[in-house]
Amino acid sequence: MGYQVKFYQLRCIETEDNGEDETWVDFRGGRVWGRGDVSKGDVINVNNGPFTLSNSGADVVSVWEHDDFDPDDHLGDFHISPASSGRGEQVAVFRGDGAHYTLTYEVRPDNWYPRPPAGAPRRAHANAPPKGKVGGALAHLLPRRPVTALHGAGCRVSR
Asked: For residues 133 and 146, what is the distance between their CA atoms, to the nearest angstrom?
């Protein structure tokens, strides 16, 4: 049996730069969200996936921040494996280079996610708020879903 991961929300708790970050999210080296302007307190509806997990172990999701005049900042990696299937929505934590981001995701068996007919437009997760970003004072309007926070185990932060 194969497994898939779906990414739901990216939350910025602290930016790497003063003001806005130009952040993006990669999964196995391919971009799954961004590059977008993100401020402290923003919640971005990524709503992307599902993506098939490899059978070789853990796949890596990374968060990056763009810089114009020096190398881009790697804000961290998180390893996602089929072992986290069936635990509901979970939270990956990224704390590199002074920034603090979280990414909500879910791992399920590959036959769980409904597949749209070929050529059909992608639809957002049934419980997801509208596309775009909601931050600061409006964050309380987002639907609250149970999540499991993972700190440390399975998380490697690069500096």
From this structure: 20
Let me know the angle formed at the C-alpha of 43 by 41 and 45, rounded to the nearest 5 degrees. Answer: 170
Residue 144 has pLDDT above 60, yes or no: no
DSSP code, position 151: -
Look at the pTM and tell me if it is higher than 0.85.
no
Strands (E), the chain: 3-14, 21-27, 30-38, 42-52, 59-65, 73-80, 89-94, 100-109, 133-135, 147-149, 155-156
Domains of the chain: 3-156 (2.60.40)
Q: Which of 126, 158, 132, 130 is nearest to 145 (CA)?
A: 126
User: 147-149 and 89-94: which strand pairing?
Assistant: parallel
The one-letter amino acid at 97: D
| Mean of pLDDT values over 140-158 | 46
